[in-house]
Amino acid sequence: MSEVAPLNPFTDLGGVVSFTSTKIGHARGQRRAGVEDNPELENKSQSVAVGRRNPMDLELNLEMLKVLRQDAETRCNEASSHVQELERELQFAASRVQKLELELQHGLAINGELQQQTAQLRSALEESNNDKEFFFRGFREREAQLRVAEAQACALEIHTSELIDQTLQASTSQSQQQLMATVKESLGVCSLCQNDYNKARLPSM
C-alpha cells in the first residue's frame, strides 16, 4: 500500500484553518485597537497595508495559492487512490470472509454427518454387544444343558449296565435251573431204561 504524506494543517484540515484564521483575526483586532489609540502606529500600519497591495506581492500570493492548490489536489488524489485501494482490500476481505463462511458451513455439515455416523456406529456396537451377550448367554445355557444331558446319559448307562448284569444273572440262574432239571430228567429216564434192561436180561423163572 502507498504511503500517504502527512497532512498540511493549512490546506487539508478545514478545522485547523478556521481555527488559525480566527486566531489571526483576533490578533488583528487587538492590534487595530492598539493602533487606534496611537496615531503613529496607525500611520505605520497604513503604510504596511499599502505595501501589501503591491502587485508583486499579489502575484506571489497567487502563485503560492496555485502551488498550495496543486499540492492539495495531489494529496486529494493520493487520498482517493488510497481509499480505492482500501476499498479493494475491503472487497477482498469480504470475499474471503464469505469463502470462510462457506467453508465453515461445509465443515459444520461434515461434522453433523460424522456425529450422525458416530451415533449409528455406537448404536450398532451396542446392538452387537447385546447380540454377543445373548449369544454367549445362550451358549452357556446350552453348555449347561449339555452337561446335564451328559450326566443323565452317564446315569442311564450305569443303570443300563446294572439292568444288563441283573438280566444276565437272572438268565444264567434260570438257564442253570432248567439245565439241572433237564439233566435230572435225563438221568431219571436213563435209570428206568437201565432197570428195564436189567429185568429183560434176567432169565425167566
TrEMBL record:
<protein>
    <submittedName>
        <fullName>Uncharacterized protein</fullName>
    </submittedName>
</protein>
<feature type="region of interest" description="Disordered">
    <location>
        <begin position="27"/>
        <end position="48"/>
    </location>
</feature>
<feature type="coiled-coil region">
    <location>
        <begin position="69"/>
        <end position="131"/>
    </location>
</feature>
<keyword id="KW-0175">Coiled coil</keyword>
